[in-house]
Write a structure and sequence with these properties.
Shape: globular
CATH class: Mainly Alpha
CATH architecture: Orthogonal Bundle
Number of helices: 15
Strand order of the largest sheet: 1-2
Number of domains: 1
Strand content: under 5%
Helix content: 55-70%
Radius of gyration: 21 Å
Order of helices and strands: HHHEEHHHHHHHHHHHH
Length: 436
C-alpha cells in the first residue's frame, strides 16, 4: 500500500472521528414496546452466524488459489469486514434503508452515523426486534457481497485498488440494490419482486460484478494453478453452510415457523446440490471430489437464498438439483472461453442467484408465506414470474455495466493490476510481505 494512499485514508478516518464529536447522536429514550425477547435472541444469533460466513468465504477462496496467493486472497475477505462496516455506520445504512429517493436509493442523511437507530422505531418488516439489531444484521450482508467478487480477480488486483473498488461498489451498486429490493418504497419491491435473503441483492450483484471484473482485468499471466489447500475449501464450506442458516432463516426476523421452514429448505437445497454436482461429474466421466462437493453445496445455498421462505421443502429439492446442473454446465462452458474468472464466481453465484430468482417466480406460494401476493408460475399465475424475469434483466444490466464503470474509475485513480513481476512472485509477498 502506498504511503500517499494510506495518508489520504487516515485523514478521512480522522474526519469521521471528528464528525462523531460534532454529531454524537446520543440516543434518546429507547422504546422497547413490542420488542420480543425470543425474536431478539434469535436475530442476535443470526447476525453472528452471517458474519462468520465471511471468514468462511476467506477459507473457501483461499484454499482454491495458488499457495503464493493464499494470504492475500483471504485478506480481501477479512478487510471487507472492517471497511464496509465503517461505510455502513457512516452513511451506507442510510443509502440502503433511509428515506426513499424515487425508489432508487435512500437519503444518506436519514441515519447518518446511525442517528435515530438505537432509539428509533422498529423496521416495518421486523417489528419485534430493535431497529439497531436490524441495521447491524443487514450490515453482514453488505460485508460479504464485495468479498464474493474477489474470487473472480484473485491473484492479480492491487490491494489499494481493491479497497477503493469495494468502497465504490458498496455505495453505488450494493446499497441502491438493497434499497430497491428490500425498502417498502423500492422500485423492485413495488414491482413485486421477492428476495427472501439476498439472491438478487447479494449473489446476482456479486456474480455480474465478478464477470465484469474478469473481463476488465483480463487473464492472469499464469492462469493454470493447483489449489493450495483443499482442506481450507472444506473448512470454508462448513463455515459457509453453518452461517447460511442465519443468512436465510434470520431473514424471517422472527423465531417462528417461517424461520424453521427456511432452515429446512436451505438444508435440503444445499444437500441436493452438493450430491447432484458430484453425480453429474461422474456421469460425464469425472471422479467425485471434495472440491466438486463443496462447490455444489455453495451453489445450492446460493440458489435457495431468494426462495428460502417462499417455497416448500420438496420444491427446494428441485431448486438444488436444477441449479447444480446449470451451474456445473456454466463452469464447463467458462473453461472453454478466454474469461479468467479465477474461482468461477459468475457461474456459481451469478448463475445460481439467477436460477434462484427465476425458480422463486415459479414456486413461491402464499400458503408458505402470507407476504406472497402473487403465487408462482406452477400455480397457474404469471404476474410474479414476469416481474422476476424483468427484475433479473434489470439487475443484471445495472450490476454488470455499473461495475464496469466503477472499474474504469478505479483504474484511473489507482491502476487495478499488479505488475507482471509482482504477480509471478505472488501477492502474499509482493503486496504484504507475508508468507503462508
Amino acid at each position: 500500500m502506498s504511503r500517499r494512499f494510506a495518508l489520504i485514508t487516515f485523514s478521512l478516518l480522522l474526519i469521521i472521528v471528528a464528525g462523531c464529536f460534532i454529531f454524537p447522536n446520543v440516543p434518546g429514550v429507547i422504546n422497547s414496546e413490542n420488542i420480543n425477547a425470543a425474536d431478539t435472541a434469535w436475530m442476535l444469533t443470526a447476525t453472528a452466524l452471517v458474519l462468520i460466513m465471511t471468514p468462511g468465504l476467506a477459507f473457501f477462496y483461499g484454499g482454491m488459489v495458488n499457495k503464493k496467493n493464499v494470504l492475500s486472497t483471504m485478506l480481501q475477505s477479512f478487510i471487507s469486514m472492517a471497511l464496509i462496516t465503517i461505510i455502513w455506520v457512516v452513511f451506507g445504512f442510510s443509502l440502503a434503508f433511509g428515506d426513499s429517493f424515487h425508489g432508487v436509493v435512500g437519503n444518506p442523511k436519514t441515519f447518518f452515523l446511525m442517528n435515530h437507530v438505537a432509539d428509533g422505531p422498529a423496521w416495518k418488516f421486523a417489528p419485534t426486534i430493535p431497529f439497531i439489531l436490524f441495521a447491524f444484521y443487514q450490515l453482514k450482508f453488505a460485508i460479504i457481497t464485495p468479498a464474493l467478487i474477489t474470487g473472480a480477480f484473485a491473484e492479480r488486483m492491487k490491494f489499494t485498488a481493491y479497497l477503493l473498488f469495494i468502497t465504490l461498489f458498496c455505495i453505488f451498486i450494493y446499497c441502491p440494490l438493497a434499497h430497491a429490493t428490500w425498502h417498502p418504497d423500492g422500485l423492485l419491491a413495488k414491482l413485486g419482486v421477492l428476495d427472501f435473503a439476498g439472491g438478487t441483492v447479494v449473489h446476482m450483484s456479486a456474480g455480474w460484478a465478478a464477470l465484469a471484473s474478469a473481463l476488465y482485468l483480463k487473464r492472469r499471466n499464469e492462469p493454470a494453478h493447483n489449489p493450495a489447500r483443499i482442506t481450507y475449501v472444506l473448512l470454508g464450506t462448513g463455515l459457509l453452510w453453518f452461517g447460511w442458516f442465519g443468512f436465510n432463516a434470520g431473514s424471517a426476523f422472527h423465531a417462528d415457523t417461517l424461520a424453521a421452514i427456511s432452515i429446512a429448505t436451505t438444508s435440503t437445497a444445499s444437500a441436493a446440490a452438493a450430491f447432484t454436482w458430484i453425480i453429474f461429474d461422474v456421469v460425464r466421466g469425472r471422479k467425485p471430489g471434495a472440491m466438486g462437493t463443496c462447490i455444489g453445496a455453495v451453489v445450492g445455498l446460493v440458489a435457495i437464498t431468494p426462495a428460502a421462505g417462499f417455497i416448500s421443502i420438496p420444491q427446494s429439492f428441485v431448486v438444488g438439483v436444477v441449479s447444480s446442473v446449470v451451474s456445473n454446465l456454466m463452469v464447463e462452458w467458462r473453461t472453454k472461453t478466454s474469461i479468467d474468472d479465477t474461482l468461477d464466481v459468475f457461474p456459481c453465484h451469478g448463475v445460481g442467484g439467477m436460477m434462484g430468482m427465476l425458480l422463486t417466480g415459479v414456486f413461491a406460494s402464499s400458503h408458505v408465506n402470507s407476504a406472497v401476493v402473487d403465487n408462482g408460475l406452477v400455480y397457474g399465475e404469471t404476474k410474479l414470474f414476469v416481474a422476476h424475469l424483468f427484475g433479473m434483466l434489470a439487475v443484471s444490466f445495472f450490476a454488470f455495466f455499473g461495475t464496469m464503470l466503477l472499474l474504469k474509475i478505479t483504474n484511473i485513480i489507482i491502476p487495478l493490476r499488479v505488475s507482471e513481476e509482482e504477480e509471478r512472485a505472488g501477492l502474499d509477498w509482493s503486496l504484504h510481505e507475508e508468507k503462508l
